[in-house]
Amino acid sequence: MKELFIDRDKEILRIAVKNKGKLEKLYIEEEEKEPIQGEIYKGIVRKVIPNLKSAFVDIGFKKNAYMYIDNKFNNSGIKNGDEVIVEVLKEGTREKGPKVTTMISIQGKYVVLDTSLDRIKFSSKIDTEIDKDSIVKEIVKPKDIGVIIRTKALESSVSDINKEIGILYDIYSDILKKGQFSLKPSKIYDGGGTIGKVLRNILEEDVKIILNDKKDYDNVIEMNLSKNCDFCDINYYEENIPMFEKYGIESEILKLRNKKVKLPCGGDIVIEKTEAMTVIDVNTGKNVKGKNVEKAIFDTNVEAAKEIGRQILLRNISGIVAIDFINMTSKKYKKIVIDILRDYLKEDNSKFSIVDFNELNIVHISRMKKGKSILEYIDERCSVCHGKGSVLKFSYLKMLMKNEITRQMKEYLVKEFHIAVNKSYKDIIEDKKQILIDEYKNIECDIYITYTNEVDTYKVEPIIFENMRKKLEDFKITK
After folding, report:
1. What's the predicted TM-score (pTM) here?
2. Tens digit of pLDDT for each residue in 304-336?
3. CB-CB neighbours of 466 under 10 Å
4. I want to staple 2 with a disulfide (CB 3.0 to 4.6 A). Which of 177, 207, 321, 344 is the partner?
């Protein structure tokens, strides 16, 4: 049985998927209300740049979105001031706003309605021999939008597919109405947000769902009922220990900051992110001692391929990935390794391609970018080493410290705590100290913060004795 953990903090939403007890996928979303992929907005064209065949669109945020202009997008005639309905293709960065398109799509479990089409099309992932013509004849396609049949539709009846098409078309019609009557740039559709997107792909499976937010819990219950799922075990988490800590997920997330990942056989993989690509090196470690060398190398590469596939999905690594496997001469062994990588990446919705082993025994993977990498949510540049290294992002560090303090408040029944923080975080915390003060006032506790090199990140300890309180008096941040 799969397990789905949905953890909502004040500023961060985190969703973890475990399969047979092993962390399989991870989604993190900051509550900054910035546009995310798949959301649909009413926008106003602010600037058309004919030479670049592009336009900037105001969708209600500080940075305008940008989109390409072309006949195939049915937007070649747009001009400044035009009102448009656009879908977010790619999230914005520090330097530029999100990328959008006038070709919008509404995703369901079985089909996708897509304005870039005028016909029924099958997903490129469907490679089985099926009678597509007979399926197409039974599909009820709306007149003004195309339909893409997803792989999951093959496991369902045509009546269920047509029912979903009707539901999605009602959503599409509602989007058009909101786009017509909205007076200013704004979001008009989010598809249930990140939770909705994850649930659409998992609700047909036997899954246990655990949530720590009552509103999310009620929404998931409603979604489960609307899908007629009687095999989803939905639970509301109310224990004192933070949910991700209770189920060992927090430590797994923090491990994703490590470059080196150990393999069960004794070898390891090293993941290095550069400006142009991600480079992954595979090492045998102690796995070749006293063994058939060729077989030991193959076994290590097999384990590495499984872990690399898992890490690409967990870390949301995109762009070009170059993998330096240990040298193998056997074509059979090489094919097995490639097949493992392909099978792992097929579990994801991002488009990818794999280039087979070259003469240097390197495999190249290209994976389409969908959202930020996990490290972009939990890491930021270190001010101490002038950007050469990274530290936990302030928002993530703040959440971890608050969770630990909340747990200890209930465990020790005290309201005063000392937080020893690594010195590398001093500038970040001092700059945003008022945010911490407001946070701890809300949970009604007093905090004393000191900086040291004796801890890697932070350590929380309850203040129980008066002499300890007096020693720390000058370091109290809450008054």
Report:
1. 0.76
2. 999 999 999 999 999 999 999 999 989 999 999
3. 8
4. 207
Q: What is the C-alpha separation between 105 and 145, in angstroms, rounded?
A: 9
Rounded average pLDDT over 444-465: 93
Dist CA 333 CA 437 (whole Å): 58
342-369 pLDDT, tens digit each: 998 987 767 899 999 998 889 999 998 8
| C-alpha to C-alpha distances, 390 to 57, 185, 253, 371, nearest whole angstrom | 34, 36, 15, 20
Q: Of 103-117, 253-267, 341-355, 401-415, where does mean pLDDT reach its minimum?
A: 341-355
* CA 352 remoteness from chain centre: 16
C-beta of residue 440 within 8 angstroms of C-beta of residue 476? no
Query: What is the dihedral sign for C-alpha 48, 54, 60, 63?
Result: negative
Torsion of CA 310, 314, 319, 323, to 10 degrees: -30
374, 256 in Cβ contact below 8 A? yes
The answer for residues whose C-beta is within 8 angstroms of residue 296's C-beta and 6 or more apart is 265, 284, 287, 288
Residues 31, 12: Cα–Cα separation, whole Å: 6
Distance CA 245, CA 164 (A): 38
d(CA 266, CA 281): 15
